[in-house]
Amino acid sequence: MDDNKESMDQKSRYVLKRLKGGEIRFRMRGELFCPLCGKILQKDIRSLIQHATGVGLSTSGKHRPATKAKHAAYGLFLQNYVLPGLFPVNAPAAGPHAPGPV
Fold first, then answer.
1. How far is 46 from 11, CA to CA, in rounded Å?
2. Which of 51, 80, 90, 95 has a CA between 20 and 30 Å from the CA of residue 59?
3. What tens digit of pLDDT does each residue of 4-27 get?
4. Residues 33, 39 contacting (CB under 8 angstroms)
């Protein structure tokens, strides 16, 4: 494994640890944003996941390896830890006859 790839893996693990510990937030005053680059996303959590994984998997020279590693870890965190909590697998499907919010 080359040093660059190893460094990216170490950075990803470090960022993932901080995310799990709650040290990095992704919501401020109701707005959804990327805490790694400051990009404000007006849509939903899926747009934030798409942004993070897109930057993390980018093959262009636009982003530094450390930035890619951080975004890749962030996308993984959102996909594996945040999204399942928002949309549990065993939750009843919302349909035309589903009760509304209480």
1. 23
2. 80
3. 777 778 888 888 888 888 887 766
4. yes
4 token code pair: 């660059």
> Which residue, among 6, 15, 4, has the nearest Cα to 73 in the 3D structure?
15
The residue with tokens 């996941």 is 49
86 Cβ neighbours under 8 A, 6+ residues apart? 45
Whole-angstrom distance, CA of residue 62 vs CA of residue 70: 15
Half-sphere exposure of 87 (CA within 13 A, CB side): 9
Determine whether 35 is exposed, middle or buried from the number of CB atoms within 10 Å of its CB (0-12, 13-18, 19+).
middle
